[in-house]
Amino acid sequence: MNKVLPGPVRLDKWLWAARFYKTRALAVDEIGKGRVQINGQDAKPSREVRVGDLLRLRQGPVEREVQVLALSHVRGPAPVAQTLYAETPESSAAREKAAEARRLAPEPAQTITQGRPTKQDRRRLSEWDRWSASADPD
Fold first, then answer.
1. pLDDT at res. 114
2. What is the DSSP string of 35-68?
């Protein structure tokens, strides 16, 4: 089903096969933006990935560090794709901590106590701005 290769595979193709990004084009964009490193160095999409390499990548707010366990150039089902890598314990702990912090963060809408200003409120504000901006020199 998922063809495992003995030799190296392009980074963009491996990230796509491991299901980190939905398309190879997205993988190339993220690599180009410097959001993917191999063994601590910025990489190009054509860089070859080998078994044992340590990859650091960002997916939106989530930063992950994974070790390459197997190579594949074919995108298969998610359970098979998850066998291609192992996330480091530090990475998974940091990801869970960030998820918990996001879950416990206050809802931005709850900080608004009065709600949106009405049309009448906006008119009062614009009237106040107009008069407060003009200062009489004494």
1. 74
2. -EEETTEE--TTPEE-TT-EEEEEETTEEEEEEE
> Does the structure show a pLDDT above 70 at 131?
no
Name the β-bridge partners of 85.
68
Contacts of 55 (CB under 8 A, 6+ apart): 36, 37, 38, 49, 65, 66, 67, 68, 85
- How far apart (Å, rounded) are the C-alpha atoms in residues 89 and 109? 35
In whole angstroms, give the CA distance from residue 91 to residue 104. Answer: 20
Angle (CA) 103 106 109, round 5°: 120
Those residues whose C-beta lies under 8 Å from the C-beta of residue 62, and which sit 6 or more positions away, are: 95, 98
The conformation of residue 87, written as its DSSP 8-state character, comes to E
Helix (H, G, I), strand (E, B) or coil at 9: strand
pLDDT above 60: residue 104: yes
For residues 84-93, average pLDDT: 93
